[in-house]
Structures are given as C-alpha cells and as structure tokens.
Amino acid sequence: MEVYVRLNNDVERDFAFQVDSEDTINSKIARVFLKGGEGVSDIIVLRPTIFHKKLPTGYSKSMHPGYMTEGGCLIFDYDADLKQYKQKLDPEKKLMDQLWPGQLILPEWERSTTNIIIYVALMLVWLYTDLPDVISPTPGISLTNQLSRIAIPILEHFELGHVADRLKMEIQVNYTGLAAQWLFFVVHILKIAVLTMFFTTAMVNPISFNPAVLYKIRNIQLTDPKLRSLLRSLGWVGARRGTYDEYQGNLYSYIMKKYGDPAKAFRAGMIKVAAAPGFPLGEGEGFQTPLAQRLTGSTFKTIKDEGKFVLSEEYFIQLEDDLKKKLDACQGDIGEMNNEIRRFRRFGFLNQVKN
C-alpha cells in the first residue's frame, strides 16, 4: 500500500511511499533519513530548518479525519499535524497494522542545541566586529575593513593607486562620523534579523555550508542506477499529495476547461463546486475509522444508514476499480496513463466531478 510522509515538516511536502506487508518504520521509513548510501539525507534536505537535528526522534500518524474531495477521495487538512491529532507509531510494528492506505506519517523533529549555539556565536562575533568604532574595544576589525585590507595590495599591483588610497582612508578608525557609525550598526542588526528569519522559516535551508558538498550534490544525476535503486528500495514514489488550495485551484481550472467559461459553469451549477469543493470530515470518519473495521466495515452502507464516511477495504477496492477504468480509457497511451496516476496520487479524481 501507499502512505504519505511529511518531509521538512512542510504541508506542501507530503510524499508518497510504497510499503510492503512486512515493512515497519525502522525497516522502511526511518531509512529515508539516513546518510551514506542507506538513505537520501546527504543529497536531499529533509529536516525542517538548520536549527533541527538531521534525524527524526520518532514518528506519529495523523488521526485527523481528512478532507473529502468532490471526487470521493481524501486529502490532508491543514490541521492534520496538530498535537491532538497525532498518535505515536510503533517503530517495530508492521505499518499495515497501524495505518490506513494513504494515511499521513509525521516525523517528530528535535531542535539541535549545538547548531543553535554555533549560529548565535557566529552572529554575535559578526555583530561585535561591526560595533561602532567609538565604543568598540578593537575598532576597525569589521569584515568590510578586512576585505579592504586584502584588496589594497591587489589594487596597487594593478596600478590602481587612487582606489587603494581611498580604501586606506576608509579603514582608518573613526573615518566616518558618529551618526553614520551608529546607522551602519543598526543596518547590520537588521541584516542579522533578516538572515535569522530566512533560516528559522526555512526560506533558506541548505543541506550544507560546505562548498565541496554542494558541488558534489549538483553533479548527482537522477538517472544514476545506484540512486534509482536506492529510491526503489525506500519505496519512494516521487509523487506529492496536494494541499487543499492546490486541489481547489486544479479543480477550478478543470471545471472552467470542461464548461468553457464561468457563465456556462454557473448555468451548469458548478461555480459553487469550483469555488469551494469538498468538505472536512467529522469525528469518527475518514482516518479516524478503527483499523479493526478494515475488513468488516462497509463504507457505502454506513453512508446510507448513518450519513458518515468511514474507511473500509470495500472503499479502497472501489477506488482501485475506478482508477483502472480511467487507465483503460487512456487506450494504451503511456504518457496519459502516467499523468492519470500522478494526478490520482496528488488529488484523487478530478474528472469524477459531475453536474
């Protein structure tokens, strides 16, 4: 079966993985985060930020019921990772005994005290070097001044003495006025604040600060047989589950394409569907269905009798049958079949929507 794993603790990075009947967290999912050819964390950034440890400390599953699409499939709600919906997974127990197909696995991340201390120390040192000369115990040691001192002999070598003389003047202590010194220091504080924001929000989340490592990663070919073999062994499908906003945007485009324009879609009664498709499931529905009812429960009977949507083997067999019909309709076109499977893994069915 396929399950989804949230990478980088990011709602937009819920990737599909295939697990076999005997697979556990330790034998399959945890391997993804290893290095040295056992996993992919040395070539792909998986942790949330540079301030987190590279390995998860544990794994939970999301027990949020889910969000029902217009095509009768489930996507993950934005609240799926809230604490009240998390349930710890046993790392040694079979995943098939702990999860529904398509359920979300949430790695648990711990902040790295070492990384935080190193970052704070570097920022404080950088801040110290840019202290205004009037208060600095060691004036004139800013990074800009150090670069100027390196540049001066180079400029003189190339007979650019007028530029070198200008730099010599600028690196003199108290060359700039008092107001300018404090203004530059405030700007420096703002630079550090912005840089810290980029790192804490993962807008910048490098796999390494080592240029040699970055160069090596850049030269990795996705067609490398060893890499492809590793990804297969990890169950990495490469498909990502879409968010609600992505689903709504794609469904809106599909409906507009189908009906031609908003006016025709309105007359067909599809504008409201396109604007706000699907609905959130309630308590006891969706992924909150007890796993013990997998073989004994009936999705369609429960909908008819109780008006509730529960998961069951019956439901997944129906999904599989519907997908097979759509693939048969592709008439052997491999590209279209791949697109249909990719679309199903991301949003479920879009073209199940009927007026």
Q: What do you see in this structure?
A:
The chain has 2 domains: 2-111 and 216-347, no CATH class; 114-200, no CATH class. The two termini are 32 Å apart. Helix content is 43%, strand content 10%. The protein is of the alpha+beta class. A 6-stranded mixed beta sheet has the order 6-3-7-1-2-8. The chain is elongated, with a radius of gyration of 28 Å. Strand 1 (2-6) and strand 2 form a beta hairpin. One of its GO terms (cellular component) is endoplasmic reticulum membrane. This is Glucose-signaling factor 2. One of its GO terms (molecular function) is unfolded protein binding.
- SS content category: alpha+beta
As residue ranges, the low-confidence spans are none
How many strand elements? 9
Total discrete domains: 2
Order of helices and strands: EEHEEEEEHHHHHHEHHHEHHH
Strand order in space, largest sheet: 6-3-7-1-2-8
GO molecular function, one term: unfolded protein binding
Transmembrane segments: 179-199
GO biological process, one term: protein localization to cell surface
Organism: Torulaspora delbrueckii (Yeast)
Describe the secondary structure blueprint for this structure.
Blueprint: E1 2-6, E2 14-18, H1 25-29, E3 58-62, E4 67-68, E5 74-75, E6 86-88, E7 104-108, H2 113-129, H3 143-157, H4 161-170, H5 178-200, H6 211-218, H7 225-234, E8 236-241, H8 244-259, H9 262-267, H10 271-275, E9 279-280, H11 299-306, H12 313-328, H13 334-347
Parallel strand pairs: 1-7
Antiparallel strand pairs: 1-2, 2-8, 3-6, 3-7, 4-5, 4-9
Helix pairs in contact: 3-4, 12-13
